[in-house]
Design goal:
The chain is built from six helices and six strands. Strands 2-3-1-4-5-6 form a six-stranded mixed β-sheet, sandwiched between helices. Strand 2 and strand 3 form a beta hairpin. About 3% of the residues have low confidence.
């Protein structure tokens, strides 16, 4: 397998206007366009990354957040390897809608155990002044949803963007390692084992 890059399908989810397209473009091409328009349907870009010495091609799917595009985006959830749930720290409603986005994704991706799927949560737009979502509230949501990693990002000034996307790959590898370590018999498996999330991109 040496030299061969593993393809990972990564889905970006969240309300319209939280900066999903800007995050994807910042990560893939290191560009930021303040005049970018809302995504219509679904777009995707590829980015080659190396995580822990392994090569991956991240195929990042940017989905439209508006309800009227639901039928366009949901077919693309199937086959996803990881999901970046995104809200804007200056938009309380986008944070409150996180559970809805997670539920929609799990349903249409046909995933039975949401707490053992590699979700990463991004609190975007930390460059803005009028913050509406406390960091601790976001971290508490993550604790209640499988201890998924949380990163505070800014597509505008590039804060933690690279770190957050690569964290999705690390989370996937971590959960795969846990599955490999589980005994195949009995029903006493400890699903909480080794689930400490890396919050290195967040507030302290």
């Amino acid at each position: 397998m040496s030299g061969k890059s593993k393809l990972l399908k990564v889905v970006l989810l969240g309300d319209g206007g939280v900066g999903k397209s800007s995050l994807m473009n910042r990560f893939v091409s290191n560009k930021f366009d303040a005049q970018s328009f809302h995504t219509i349907g679904v777009e995707f870009l590829n980015k080659d990354v190396t995580v822990d010495g392994e090569s991956f091609t991240m195929q990042i799917w940017d989905t439209a957040g508006q309800e009227r595009f639901k039928s366009l985006r949901t077919p693309f959830y199937r086959g996803a390897d990881c999901c970046l749930l995104t809200f804007a720290v200056d938009d309380l409603q986008s944070f409150r809608n996180m559970s809805m986005w997670k539920k929609e994704f799990l349903y249409y991706a046909d995933i039975q155990d949401g707490n053992n799927f590699p979700f990463v949560v991004l609190g975007n737009k930390i460059d803005v002044e009028n913050r509406a979502v406390p960091c601790e509230s976001a971290k508490e949501w993550c604790r209640q949803n499988g201890n998924c990693p949380y990163f505070e990002t800014s597509a505008k000034d590039s804060t933690n963007v690279d770190l957050a996307f690569k964290a999705a790959v690390k989370r996937l590898k971590e959960l795969e390692d846990q599955m490999d370590e589980k005994p195949q018999h009995g029903n006493t498996v400890d699903l909480k084992k080794k689930n400490k999330a890396s919050n290195s991109g967040c507030c302290n």
